[in-house]
Design goal:
Distance between the termini: 101 Å
Shape: globular
Number of helices: 3
Largest sheet: 9 strands, mixed
Helix content: 10-25%
Strand order of the largest sheet: 1-2-4-7-11-15-19-23-27
Structural class: alpha/beta
């Protein structure tokens, strides 16, 4: 009988097994919660009313990550606008770190998400912007629709296959007021403020001191090459009281090898179109090219 009891006896699992199970459970917990908590620090930003206050590079990144995570959620819900506002409280230096645009159009969601809040620079500057290797849009913002950017200076580099600007890659029904930019921009449709503006966008009292390169995309699938000191392409939009000093270089590309359409450049805009029957009509007025070269 004693022998039978010994045979039925099972020793307890070794302690190492418990430790392994504990760490695997902890790893699973962290994996499930990290995506939710990645932008939870938005709660750490100071807020005035419903406007976030941003005074450092880390706070700007936190705001960006929050907006972009919200964007992914909105796409899943069938919405494609994010309305969150912010104001700067100090100059910010991004120190050339690679920047992912706010409301980027390259998140793999298949739908463009637009920023429609108000971003007020309050007279401060964002320096060291570095946007590289984007496909659709590049800039501090990727895509703005119905939003406003004002009282902001941006310095840095922005490059993209298609639409590139220092403030935004593409903007519709947006407002840019009292903004200034300096640095370099390159893309098929490239401009100091924006790569492309359309659908009633207004640029008012802005200045650009930028080297603009409008280059055919390297993938061999090109749209028109359009370079402008303020915006590469302007459709059914208004630019008033703005100035440019710098260079605009438009590369013609190889017509034999690429799906080439056209190319044009200008001190204010590379291409100006008025194609909508709805106001406002496209208008460029009171603008000045202080000095510069269009190649």
């Amino acid at each position: 009988q004693q022998t039978r009891q010994l045979r039925n006896f099972s020793p307890p699992p070794p302690r190492s097994r418990y430790i392994l199970v504990y760490f695997l459970s902890l790893l699973l917990f962290l994996t499930l919660t990290t995506s939710r908590c990645a932008w939870a620090s938005i709660d750490n930003l100071a807020i005035s009313g419903d406007v976030y206050l941003i005074g450092s590079a880390e706070e700007l990144k936190t705001f960006r990550d929050y907006v972009n995570n919200e964007a992914e959620t909105r796409v899943e819900e069938g919405r494609n606008y994010v309305n969150v506002s912010a104001v700067l409280t100090a100059d910010i230096d991004l120190k050339g770190e690679v920047w992912t645009p706010i409301c980027d159009d390259s998140q793999g969601t298949g739908r463009a998400v637009r920023y429609e809040g108000t971003f007020d620079g309050a007279g401060y500057a964002i320096k060291g912007l570095n946007v590289v290797e984007r496909e659709n849009v590049s800039g501090l913002f990727g895509y703005i629709e119905g939003g406003t950017v004002k009282n902001l200076s941006v310095e840095g580099d922005s490059s993209c296959v298609y639409r590139a600007g220092l403030i935004v890659g593409r903007a519709a029904s947006a407002m840019f007021e009292n903004c200034s930019v300096s640095g370099r921009v390159s893309g098929a449709s490239a401009g100091g403020i924006a790569g492309e503006i359309y659908a009633g966008t207004t640029v008012f009292n802005c200045s650009s001191s930028v080297q603009v390169l409008a280059a055919v995309s390297s993938d061999g699938v090109s749209v028109s090459n359009l370079g402008g000191g303020i915006a590469g392409r302007v459709r059914d939009s208004v630019i008033t009281g703005s100035t440019f000093i710098g260079t605009v270089d438009v590369e013609p590309g190889d017509v034999a090898e690429l799906n080439y359409v056209s190319c044009s450049g200008g001190g204010i805009a590379g291409e100006v179109l008025d194609i909508s029957t709805v106001e406002p009509d496209t208008l460029i007025s009171g603008c000045t090219v202080l000095s510069g070269t269009v190649i």
